[in-house]
Amino acid sequence: MTTTTETGGSLDLLGIDSLLSAEELQLRSRVRGFVDSEIRPNIAGWYDTAVFPLEIVPKMAELGLLGMHIKGYGCPGRSAVEYGLAAMELEAGDSGLRTFVSVQGSLAMSAIAKHGSEEQKNEWLPRMAAGEAIGCFGLTEPTAGSDPGNMLTFARRDGADWVISGAKRWIGLASVAQVAVIWAMTDDGVRGFLVPTGTPGFKATAITQKLSMRASIQCDIELTDVRVPDTAMLPGAKGLRGPFECLNEARYGIIWGAMGAARDSYETVLAYAGERLQFDKPLAGYQLTQEKLVNMALEIAKGTLLALQIGRLKDAGQLQKHQISAGKLNNCREAIAICREARTILGGNGITLDYSPLRHAANLESVRTYEGTDEVHTLILGQHLTGIQAFR
Predict the structure, then answer these.
(1) Domains within the chain, CATH numbers bracketed
(2) How far, in Å, are 66, 243, 249, 277 from residue 104 at the CA level?
(3) Per-residue model confidence as pLDDT tens digits over 343-385
(4) Whole-prediction pTM
(5) Is 371 among the catalytic positions?
(6) Distance between CA 320 and CA 1 in Å, rounded?
(7) Phi and psi for 184 in degrees, rounded to 5?
(8) Which residue in 24, 118, 371, 375 is the catalytic one?
(9) How far apart are CA 261 and CA 324, in angstroms?
(10) Pairing mode, if any, of strands 202-206 and 218-229?
(11) How does pLDDT run across 179-231, given as a tens digit for each residue?
């Protein structure tokens, strides 16, 4: 159902809900209800104390949020648009909670679904969809963020086994995961391996003192002569195309999720501006405040339409990688600007966790950086427009 303000104005400025099916609206309503009941009442405390609430993982699984775009193996098999709508609602709660769903489903589970053997899929996907096992995705390294082709983690053959050594950084969920998808250089190029986190030599340490994504887990991983059998290799992934296909799944969810953070910030300050009196009338009655609200509403509407178009292309099997970059670059850039502007309407109250915009803005500093920085996506789009590769 379309939300309206107390003065009767629709928050759906362009009537975008009319472009969604009844099933899509129903799914969005269920996820929004989950966020309202399980995340909103608790997120300030989780964020303040830097806690990721593992207790909500089974509830996410029950809602069908884990690996929801994957078909078979106990996974929900929902459409790209439905997954996008879920990501938007989750990130309206907090980026860290949407990131859990992304790391679990778009990265770890997608790697197994796209590139794993039947045995690997049957072993892990049903458990991960049910929230009984958590996965992580080890690609980024301390010296190789935007340039994974220069990763130093190496897997060498030793008889029938592989022995992996190296380090990974900013790996979501690694300290609570049961399985890690580890990308490593080999004599035959980059390959992926499924490494149970209890394997000797595997060590994950949570990164602390973060200023962003505090209700989330990111880790350093140390791999010291980690021995796995040949069956641990993902047979369908060879070269960087393997991890990049998973990254594009995660980037797609961000396109929607960023607009959720922006929308929540906008709705928060729209309500606040209608109630907060300054100089004997509400903030919403001042021209400068109305200009801010109008600019926010326009960019949220445009960003949501962009996400929906990309989702429809994905469902039709017509999505191209430069279109994902267009969505990720635009929506993250606009969302962070909206959240920062929303904070100005709140004045000093906006720097507390009583209100969401500055929390969202801080989180979006991470979202804007991971799965490809603004600069990386600009270069992808530049190459598409000019035909000239300018990465080096």
Answers:
(1) 16-129 (1.10.540.10), 135-239 (2.40.110.10), 242-386 (1.20.140.10)
(2) 7, 14, 11, 45
(3) 999 999 999 999 999 999 999 999 999 999 999 999 999 999 9
(4) 0.95
(5) yes
(6) 32
(7) -140, 150
(8) 371
(9) 19
(10) antiparallel
(11) 999 999 999 999 999 999 999 999 999 999 999 999 999 999 999 999 999 99
